């Protein structure tokens, strides 16, 4: 019960009234007393009703209302009033707290009812504050009640704000975290990085590792954004596993992640951690019977003597990452000042390449494939070339990776296939014994759902039989989305198109996958071929690939043959075909005609001038 509980005034007054009646028998006195009594009883009834209404109102309040009084002698605070539904919820009502001091109620744990706040209120200040009690959040307002300039008591009102605090916490988390991976986001990165750099020093630097998934766009294009999001989640879990003390991980947008390393680390230790990240990302990701292979490119930048900004160090790491991508991917590179000039050159080159594609400035050169045993040409490969108006011939090793990163590779692939088919048909019409023409296809193309229909359309437009077309795909590109690639390759094979795995030995293919791919040939990467006479391990690898291909009844083409000793090795180990400068470099269409005209007659020992 509260201090405002009704008092039974009417009963007490009735006793007093009966006593007064005994003192006089005067009728007028008794009538006056009766009228006064009736009036007083009505007032008492109203007072009782008001008191009961007040008590019910206090008890019905959702929040908590209380009074605090201060006893100077004991130097303690007391609660003469503590009511409301919230009071009942937390198990504290007037009946329980009355006449008990703050210390008696809560001991030293006064987190809900701060004595320090009461002290301020008794000095005459109105105030509000947030606090916790038993895992719940509250908001309290204190108002001092004064008489003659002295605060006699304070009135408090408390409302629970747990729901709002949790909502605010959630909103704050959402503002600074990526919803897909729950990693800190770009906004949090900038806030943290600015603070770290501001407090960094020569002996306590900050290192940024800028990580970007290689060719992730192909996953989204081929499998859709839902699968792409699942891949990002899988990769983020792997990257989280790499975390160490003083290292934080953030996700930017898309397929980009940032590691921030606090404290001094040697270059070798930084690179070691970078390679740890690369190795963790490489194993296949399994999603609904799909096996997806991905790699990372990582750029690294370290703060100087406290003079760098977050934008600058991130920009440097980004440049190193981009430089890494166009230099082969799946690697870690530390930023250096000369990368800036190279990066600007790449940006300029990208702009020029876009114009070259629009203006049909690209050309094709053709390199023969040669039968190791007979020396006769058994195919030609179409290779794209770019003669820059100002810089001359640009290496495909420079502009093809650039085209892939800039999203231009599909346009180039389509043009190469169309031009190669057109040229082959032209040679046939001119009476040349044109061999099968091979074109390289990027992962972007081979993973497209309708790719086989595109190939069919190109063949029909050029009226070229499918038996004259060979499609080469790299080992890594088919492994990125092996299920879809196998389906597409089966469709191409059923059309009569020859299929080859290019750069074999540099990727992740296993024997089980090799058995599933509907292919005709393996092309051994030139890095193994060039050192077969000087590197025993490479020679054994080449032998193993030839034997494996024979077991699977596949043709074998050795790339990059440049001398007779290597050719002799291939002949000795029964390799079927080869390409390389030993026979011919890639040639423009008008120069390759002579080779085509002699393709059924040519032998190595008869035409050394053609080498």
TrEMBL record:
Domain EAL residue range list: 346-600
Pfam family, one: EAL
All copies of domain GGDEF, residue ranges: 204-337
Signal peptide: none
Listed PROSITE patterns: EAL, GGDEF
InterPro entries: Biofilm_reg_signaling, EAL_dom, EAL_sf, GGDEF_dom, Nucleotide_cyclase, Rev_trsase/Diguanyl_cyclase
UniProt cross-references to PANTHER family, sorted A to Z: BIOFILM ARCHITECTURE MAINTENANCE PROTEIN MBAA, DIGUANYLATE CYCLASE DGCP
Full protein name: Bifunctional diguanylate cyclase/phosphodiesterase
């Amino acid at each position: 019960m509260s201090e405002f509980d009704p008092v039974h005034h009417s009963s007490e007054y009735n006793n007093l009234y009966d006593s007064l009646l005994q003192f006089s028998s005067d009728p007028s006195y008794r009538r006056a007393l009766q009228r006064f009594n009736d009036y007083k009883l009505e007032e008492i009834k109203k007072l009782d009703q008001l008191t009961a209404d007040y008590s019910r109102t206090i008890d019905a309040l959702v929040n908590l209302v209380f009074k605090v009084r201060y006893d100077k002698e004991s130097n303690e605070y007391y609660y003469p009033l503590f009511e409301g539904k919230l009071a009942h919820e937390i198990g504290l009502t007037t009946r329980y707290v009355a006449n008990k001091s703050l210390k008696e109620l809560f001991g030293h744990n006064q987190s809900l009812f701060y004595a320090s706040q009461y002290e301020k209120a008794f000095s005459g200040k109105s105030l509000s504050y947030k606090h916790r009690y038993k895992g719940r959040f509250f908001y309290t307002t204190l108002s001092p009640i004064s008489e003659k300039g002295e605060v006699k008591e304070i009135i408090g009102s408390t409302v629970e704000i747990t729901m709002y605090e949790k909502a605010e916490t959630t909103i704050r988390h959402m503002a600074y975290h990526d919803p897909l991976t729950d990693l800190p986001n770009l906004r949090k990165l900038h806030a943290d990085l600015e603070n770290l750099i501001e407090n960094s020093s020569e002996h306590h630097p900050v290192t940024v590792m800028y990580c970007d998934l290689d060719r992730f766009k192909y996953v989204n294009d081929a499998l859709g954004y839902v699968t792409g999001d699942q891949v990002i989640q899988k990769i983020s879990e792997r990257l989280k596993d790499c975390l160490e003390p003083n290292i934080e991980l953030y996700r930017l947008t898309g397929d980009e992640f940032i590691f921030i390393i606090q404290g001094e680390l040697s270059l070798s230790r930084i690179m070691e951690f970078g390679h740890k990240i690369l190795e963790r990302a490489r194993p296949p990701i399994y999603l609904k019977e799909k096996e997806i292979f991905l790699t990372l490119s990582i750029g690294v930048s370290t703060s100087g003597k406290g003079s760098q900004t977050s934008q600058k160090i991130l920009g440097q790491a980004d440049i190193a990452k981009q430089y890494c991508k166009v230099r082969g991917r799946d690697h870690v590179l530390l930023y250096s000042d000369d990368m800036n000039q190279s990066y600007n050159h790449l940006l300029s080159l990208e702009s020029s390449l876009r114009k070259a594609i629009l203006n049909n400035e690209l050309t094709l050169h053709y390199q023969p494939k040669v039968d190791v045993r007979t020396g006769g040409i058994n195919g030609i490969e179409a290779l794209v070339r770019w003669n820059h108006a100002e810089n001359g011939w640009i290496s495909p090793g420079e502009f093809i990776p650039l085209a892939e990163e800039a999203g231009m590779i599909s346009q180039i692939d389509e043009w190469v296939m169309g031009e190669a088919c057109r040229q082959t048909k032209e040679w046939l019409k001119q009476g040349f014994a044109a061999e099968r023409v091979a074109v390289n296809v990027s992962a972007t193309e081979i993973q497209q759902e309708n790719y086989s229909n595109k190939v069919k359309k190109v063949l029909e437009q050029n009226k070229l039989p499918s038996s004259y077309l060979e499609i080469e795909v790299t080992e890594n590109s088919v492994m990125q989305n092996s299920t879809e690639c196998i389906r597409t390759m089966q469709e191409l094979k059923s059309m009569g198109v020859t299929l080859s795995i290019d750069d074999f030995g540099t990727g992740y293919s296993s024997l089980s996958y090799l058995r599933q791919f509907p292919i005709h040939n393996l092309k051994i990467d030139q890095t193994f071929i060039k050192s077969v006479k000087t590197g025993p391990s490479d020679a054994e690898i080449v032998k193993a690939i030839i034997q494996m291909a024979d077991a699977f009844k596949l043709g074998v083409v050795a790339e990059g043959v440049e001398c007779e000793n290597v050719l002799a090795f291939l002949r000795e180990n029964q390799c079927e075909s080869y390409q390389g400068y030993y026979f011919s470099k890639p040639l423009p269409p008008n120069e390759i005609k002579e080779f085509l005209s002699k393709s059924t007659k040519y032998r190595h020992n008869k035409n050394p001038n053609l080498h």
